[in-house]
Specification:
single chain, 228 residues, alpha/beta, Rossmann fold, 2 domains, 6 helices, 6 strands, 17% strand, Methyltransf_11, transferase, S-adenosylmethionine-dependent methyltransferase activity, Malonyl-ACP_OMT
């Protein structure tokens, strides 16, 4: 697994403080990569986002609550918050592995308000049920069904954006990152972990060679992965 990225901008808060979890949904609105005609200028449809949403719906019912690999990546991401001297009162956790991020947060980053977002309604419901069952530190938690490619968040409204193992399925990765940057307040922080281009390289090469020898050609078996 490769590809851990972070960037900062340069301060404030959002909603009134209430120490309870609540649920809301927002319509999808994009704040970047629009060319004026309602079309994204650099958009290439590598992934069927509707199909990906269905896959995440299914994963919500089949996934284990704890996965050692995902937990290790989430812990690695959250560990970066301990390197920061400032706190991040309002945070957005993008789709991917939102449950491990919430479970392993343990007060890091000084987060007071946390928005948990996923493209899958079933995944969001799973997160909400887990939040109600858990007796974690008091963080005002909200839940959104939304798409990373059309981030439904106002500009300069967040102190922190976290994405753990989700952005590598977006068609417009730079656009999704730009939207996150626009959603951040000045001096905000973006933390993300994605599967990089060298992931399982040897296995992918072995499968390609085997398929060429047996079938005389190859077909894609793994999603395209981004290079740093």
């Amino acid at each position: 697994m490769r590809g851990l990225s972070l960037f900062q901008r340069g301060p404030s808060s959002l909603w009134p403080r209430r120490r309870k979890a609540h649920h809301f949904m927002l319509s999808s609105t994009s704040f970047c990569t629009d060319n004026g005609d309602g079309l994204q200028s650099s958009r290439v449809n590598i992934f069927d986002r509707h199909l990906k949403r269905k896959q995440r719906d299914r994963a919500a019912w089949l996934m284990d609550q704890k996965d050692s690999f995902v937990d290790a990546v989430a812990e690695n991401v959250l560990d970066r918050l301990e390197d920061c001297k400032k706190s991040f009162p309002t945070a957005l956790c993008l789709g991917g592995s939102v449950l491990p991020i919430r479970r392993l947060l343990r007060g890091r980053g000084g987060i007071e308000k946390l928005i948990m977002m996923d493209t899958s309604y079933d995944m969001v419901k799973l997160c909400k049920d887990a939040e109600l069952d858990a007796q974690n530190e008091e963080i005002e938690t909200s839940f959104i069904v939304g798409d990373e490619e059309f981030l439904p968040v106002k500009e300069s409204s967040l102190d922190l954006v976290i994405s753990c193992l989700g952005l590598h399925w977006t068609n417009d990765l730079p656009g999704a990152m730009i939207q996150s940057r626009l959603a951040l307040k000045p001096d905000g922080l973006f933390l993300a972990a994605i599967l990089g281009g060298e992931t399982l390289k040897e296995l992918r090469i072995a499968c390609t060679v085997a398929q060429m020898e047996r079938e005389g050609g190859i077909s894609p078996r793994v999603s395209p992965l981004a290079q740093v």
